[in-house]
Amino acid sequence: MKNALKSSLFVLLFSLYSCGSQEGGELTGALDRPSWSPINPYGMVYVPSGTLMVGPSDQDVNSTYVQRPKQISIQGFYMDETEITNNEYRQFVEWVRDSIARKLTGLVEQDEDGNEVIDWRSKIDWEAEELDEMYLAEGDFFLGKKLIDVGKFNYEYEWFNWEKAALAPRRNSMDKNQAKIKDFTEKETVNIYPDTLVWIRNFAYSYNEPMARQYFSHPAYDDYPVVGVNWAMAKAFTHWRTQLYLSSLAGSKAAVNSEDFRLPSEHEWEYAARGGHELAPFPWGGPYIRNAKGCLLANFKPGRGDYPEDGGFYTVKADAYFPNDYGLYNMAGNVSEWTNSAFHENFYSFMSDLNPNYTYNADDEENIANKRKVVRGGSWKDIHYFLQTGTRDWEYQDTTKAYIGFRCVLTFLGRSINDF
Length: 420
Hints:
Number of helices: 8
Largest sheet: 4 strands, mixed
Structural class: alpha+beta
CATH topology of the domain at 45-82 and 262-419: paralog of FGE (formylglycine-generating enzyme)
Number of strands: 13
Strand order of the largest sheet: 11-10-9-12
Low-confidence stretches: 5-20
Shape: globular
Radius of gyration: 26 Å
Oligomer: single chain
Order of helices and strands: HEEEEHEEEHEHHHHEHEEEE
């Protein structure tokens, strides 16, 4: 009787084990993984993985020691087909404005984890007394108008410093003094309202007051590239855009793209600008800046004191002119574009040939030389040398200009979009 009971118990336990999630002991991989398919972000185009010979597109004596030719490989990514426009950036500004107003008026709630989140369903009472601190003091009114203080439009966010974490000692559960995640978490507070006075500040003895008053606010310029944003503001936008996208997927059971929207590295930008053409000096190929009919192919400064010959006096719409073969508009001219890369004259001499990028997060107190960030593409006020795909330029990360904007990229997960 006892032997029969033991035998029955053994059979029962074996049956329970073999009918579990391990498929009879076979190596199947975890079976509870979410489904996944690549996304196609709105307003972005796919740039496939490939190789790139970086450096000057032609014999350029001045760049010999700062752009030594070298072949590199670039992972596939999505890139905005146009520069970020005034209206797209305005969505960011209004989100920050409304989030401040909702917090001041108590339109907040708790999520499932007990965190305080903004209530976006309720309407804002803009006449509420709690919002008085959002406005300029009465003595600063203009023509008796009550104006919101855009100097308070601050965006606060956190980001993980992967390079700092990679250099830390490996985690050991027996070490009580081991580094924690918060040791690698950086906090940023950035005022994100565009500096509209760049139109006056950047051009001495020049009448540009109408652009300072209207360029960011008037609907006539909604589809023009945003300017007056520094490198930190562009980075803040990419973080907000990531959170905006993730919030739209809340409750979805499918796996989401865990990569963030970000600024491109300078070589991702150069690779995308060439549109699949090896050693192309311009996004349309080249070697000329005009087509067969003599028409200029980008918005830049064609001659001394001649700005309007190409069809644009200042900037033009972000989708003006023909796109390159990847479908990207204005990769040459219109506005120069911030990249994620720090500028170092000799970077080409020591950079990796695998997704090369040189980053450096300079503090406000650091030497000004450490604040240089690479900008690419040339702008509406530049001569055509700066429009070449291989031309490097830089600007200080905390400066704003009337001729520098940006666009975002998103790393593609997997081998190639054509594999799916």
